[in-house]
Amino acid sequence: MPIQRSAAVELFWKWHPRIYRWTGGRVGGKLANLPVLLLRTVGRKSGQHRESGLTYLPWANDFVVIASILGEPKNPGWYHNLLKNPEVEIQVGAENIAVRAEEAEGDERERIWSILIAESAEYTDYKDRAGRRIPVMILKRMTSSQISA
User: Cβ distance 44 to 18 under 8 Å?
Assistant: First the structure.
C-alpha cells in the first residue's frame, strides 16, 4: 500500500532533511526502494529558502525527481519553485551539487516513468490517485562556468 499524506508523514518530512543533512545521507538516504536527495529551492512567492527530501532516479550523471506529492491532486511547491528558478542546489549523500532543472517530455518522460515504476510500483498508485499528469524533472549537473554568480 502506498504512503498517503497524514500528520505522521508530515512530521517525518519536516525532520527528514535535518537528519539527512546531519548524517550526510547515511540516515534517510533511501525510501520506497529509491535513493533520496535534498532539493534546495527559493520560494517563488516568499523568497524564503526551502529544503525538500525527495526520492530520485539516477539518470546518467544527473538526477530525476517526480512531482507526485504522494498522489495529491496538486503539484508540490518545490515544482513551482523550480519553474521560476531552475538553477538550484541538491545534496546527495554528503555532496552538494549545483543543478539546472528541466521537465522531461515525450519519449524521454515515458522512458523515465517506466523505469520508475519498475523501481517503485507505488508511483502507479500515485498517478491514479493524483488525477493529473505528474511532472518528471531532470536535475542536470552544472559546470562551474554555468553557475550564476
Answer: no
Q: What is the Cα gyration radius of the chain?
A: 15
Query: Which of 77, 87, 68, 63 lies closest to 5 in space, CA to CA?
Result: 68
Tell me which DSSP letter residue 132 carries.
S
Please report the DSSP string for 66-127 in residue order.
Answer: E--GGG-SS--HHHHHHHH--EEEEEETTEEEEEEEEE--HHHHHHHHHHHHHH-THHHHHH
pLDDT tens readout for residues 44-74: 999 999 999 999 999 999 999 999 988 899 9
Cell numbers standing for residue 55: 526520492
- C-alpha cell of residue 36: 533520496
pTM of the model: 0.85
